[in-house]
Amino acid sequence: MRSLAYLKKGIRGNTFWLDRVYLCGIVDPIVELRHLRYFVAVAEVENVTLAAQRLHVSQPPLSRQIHQLEEEVGCALFERTGKSLRLTPAGEVFAREAKAILAKVGEAAAAARATTEAAGELRVGYAPSLVVKILPKVLRLCKERAPEVRIRLHDLSTMEMVRQVRGGDLDVALAVHPGTAALRGLTFHEIERLPACVVLPLPHPLARAKSPHLKDLAEEPVVAFTREDYPEYRRWLASVFKTIQRRARIVEEHDSITSLIAAVEAGQGIAFGGDGFKALCGTRLCVRRLDGFAPPIRVGAIHSPRSIHPAVRLLLANG
Predict the structure, then answer these.
(1) What distance separates the 2 farthest-apart alpha carbons in the chain?
(2) Buried/exposed 251-284: b ≥16 CB within 10 Å, e otherwise
(3) How far is 126 from 191, CA to CA, in rounded Å?
(4) Model confidence pLDDT, tens digit, residues 43-81
(5) Which residues contact 256 (CB under 8 A, 6 or more apart)?
């Protein structure tokens, strides 16, 4: 007797067919999904009466379906002793394959529903300095996977995004990891890690250096994002300077990337951040990666685990 050695699956109308199933020498049986569901239910409890109760069907039709399945397959799937049933060796093989098929069909149905449900509006919060590189990729992927979705972008600070995701005003936020405490009740899906960079005005002596060392910048005045709106940035900045046992000499605070870039360009100080600054500064400023062991910036998607927009689920699955 040959086991279930080769399986090719497909759907014809409402019938799920198994092509060239070699079991007990029988080829090309036609098996419907309900046959597989009934069979798996009986196999799990080894009792037709209990399986019928679980399936909310009467016992006689269920017994007939199992017999029909065995006729289609061409051999006994159960050993019958009184009222109890036990899988035969062939039945054990068939049960394993049947469960795999049903699981795959379930996944296909869920994916189809998600694509249909994704139509509507997706509200996305983002921080320009951090996601300027990944935002176009996310938008392009969303257009490919869920073209029916209208996307609304909101330029916000990290804490504003966290509050709005928690409050249901945003479906997802593309931001730096806000810290365990701020993330309470939300989920962070890491997308990438940005290397630490320094942003210098063009006349700065270290602007020509390929990778300035942080020790050479330790005494420089620093312009930074406000602690109130970007607490995670300030923690990251502190961790950067901790690698050289120093503290950043912050002389100005800004609540937007635009004003921070303007301050650096005006010579008020230097700034630190991810390499996304390159796309925002253009040729106005010099952005260099730091030499040494400065920690990277973790950037990802923040969303509520309780109500995930179908489009967000598709994006995360393909990110």
Answers:
(1) 92
(2) ebbbeebeebbebbeeebbbbbbbbbbbebbeee
(3) 13
(4) 998 888 888 888 888 888 888 888 888 888 888 999 988
(5) none
